[in-house]
Amino acid sequence: MDPQVGWKPEFQKTQQEIHEATGLNFNRIEHIGSTSINGIKAKPMIDIVLGVDDIQHVSVELLKSLKTIQFYRLQVVLENEVVLAKFLDNGELDTKTHIIHLVEYEGQKWNDLLSFRDQLNASELLAKEYEALKLSYLLTGNEDMDDYTMYKEDFVKRIVGRNKTTDS
């Protein structure tokens, strides 16, 4: 869970693979999540957001292209988002190494995810606050991902909301 220097090159390699498999422009493939935030501890899993034109009509071709590079659609139901994952190469589908969040390009979710990342990278104080929040969840012993997401939600909303109030 320590900060690792390898996240950025691993993202860049994956971004290139996604670009080659799907034809998506690089500006539609962004690194998000804890591994995109400088200097904080993160689970060894890279989160990537892919921007599509219409999340309600994601092409079968796009999903098939992502499958050719071992990204499989998860049975996760989220509003205005499709989630895919890549797993360890050991043949078991229990350890995710990469997560793709398909969202509408430059839509609300896209903007919120990038805003969150950018604000934490611009403020070491916010980044460390987020890291402390994540570490405190580990101490609960709960491993439920839904609970984990809810645990972080107020912090994420506060950060994303700050940007919205400064934009208007």
Keywords:
globular, five-stranded mixed beta sheet, Beta Polymerase, domain 2, 5 helices, single chain, 17% strand
Q: What's the short version?
A:
With 168 residues, the protein is α+β, with helices and mostly antiparallel strands.
Describe this structure in words.
Strand 3 (72-73) and strand 4 form a beta hairpin. The mean pLDDT is 90. The longest helix is centred in the C-terminal third of the chain and has 23 residues, at 145-167. The chain has helices at residues 7-22, 60-68, 108-122, 124-138, 145-167, and strands at residues 29-32, 46-52, 72-73, 82-87, 96-104. The chain is globular. It is α+β, with helices and mostly antiparallel strands and 168 residues long. It has a single domain, classed as Beta Polymerase, domain 2.
Distance between the amino and carboxyl termini:
37 Å
DSSP summary: helix tally: 5
**CATH homolog superfamily:** Beta Polymerase, domain 2
Strand content: 15-25%
User: So what's the overall shape?
Assistant: globular
The computed structural class is alpha+beta
* Nearest-integer average pLDDT: 90
Estimate percent helicity. 40-55%
- How large, in whole angstroms, is the Cα Rg? 16 Å
* Spatial strand order of the main sheet: 1-2-5-4-3
